[in-house]
Amino acid sequence: MKVEIYSDIACPWCYVGKSRFERALSAFPQADSVEVVYRPFQLDPAAPQQPRGHREVLAQKYGPQAVAMDERITQLGAAEGITFDFDTVLENNSLLAHRLLRYALDTHGAETQTRLKGRLMAAHFGEGMDIGDREQLADAAAAVGLDRDAVAAFLRSDDLRAEVQADIDEAHQLGISAVPTFVFEGQWAVQGGQETSTFLRVLEQVAKETANAGLKTPDALAADTAASGAGDAACADGVCEIPPAAAH
After folding, report:
1. Which residues belong to any copy of the DSBA-like thioredoxin domain (predicted)?
2. What are the C-alpha distances in Å from 233 to residues 63, 66, 143, 206, 244?
3. Which residue, of 36, 213, 247, 248, is most buried by count of CB atoms within 10 Å of its CB?
4. pTM for the full model?
5. What separation, in Å, do the N-terminal and C-terminal C-alpha atoms of the chain show?
């Protein structure tokens, strides 16, 4: 079974969803037959390539409710064993980090890519890492077993830029405008940081190749997302959504 997870490093619900999905996968009897691949998605593709404080950025976008949004996800993260330290989080354009994740997938495989994804999220949300900084990205890659010099050379190049952008464009063509979105076997999509028990049921159902009304095709997901009018909902109810004006 192949599971493609569309997410952004800068998306807190993607971090929660990753944790819950991995817990479900560890309880799934056929876990050894599941390949998990992370696909790129940018919540803010127009973000400047310079670090900005999370608190300031969120306050500019959402005003007073920004504090409550952070408090909620911090509490949910704690229940998952995840540290969200929003006082130290730096917001930056995530394209370079997505290119690094694609590099890890192409050169070392899906398992290494998953480890790197986890390292980037932990460092971004809990350690004040700048995901647009080449040196810090190279350190993160080395921490999960990649050759630091090779990674540093890659990050100085434009390699995989076109491929990653094509993947992002494909996500929009599929109708994905909110993350995380989990696509199973290229046929069924589940949106949001669902509970672990939900992910486990989905894995079992897909493995049995049975129809389930709770699973949605990418086309159906697109219709639901458009109907929701969500763009201004930010990171709420299990997903982070891209503002309509920034969508491709």
Report:
1. 3-202
2. 13, 11, 35, 30, 11
3. 36
4. 0.87
5. 29
